[in-house]
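FIELD: query
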Amino acid sequence: MSMIFAETLRQLRAEKGLSQQQLAGQLFVDRSTIAGWETGRRVPDVVLIYRISEALGVDVGILLGAAESSAETPIVIMVDDEKVILSGGLSVLEEALPGATIVGFSKPSDAVAFAKENHVALAFLDIEMGRISGLDLCQKLLDVNHRTNVVFLTAYMEYSFDAWKTGACGFMMKPLTVEAVKRQLTRLRFPIAGSPGED
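FIELD: result
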């Protein structure tokens, strides 16, 4: 996600007193393009960044710096209390998302603490994990950052109905495969850098 650029653009546009539609008109783009930049779904190319700086009357360096900071590596976590499954799953995720930082946790509380200190773009959560379920963990992660994509992992299909009642964007059966992960990446609610769903 490109939140540094998104927040910078939103603030500068507001300071200039322009609506998304008005800025879009000056740049000769659709309003939805501006909305995409301001929600962090994408970052404009260098030519458009120069045009934005002219339209908003700001130093282009501010926008270029924000765009560069937004190109950070996405953080993907996997949480499973079975260490053998966790280890195998992390290998699959590293192959499916070579440009991401992949971190595994066997304790849900450690995952929540990590999420409070880092911008987690995508979380793969086991559903059955002892005292706290993946369903509960999903809510805790979304409370920390509502833009975290959550995908549930389980060996039991009957959990799928409960999973869809949460704020998750996916459900996958174990064991993980690279192909299945790549398919899931096209369905993320908030596409992440380097994923097939990113436009």
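FIELD: remark
Residues 3-16 form the longest helix (14 residues).
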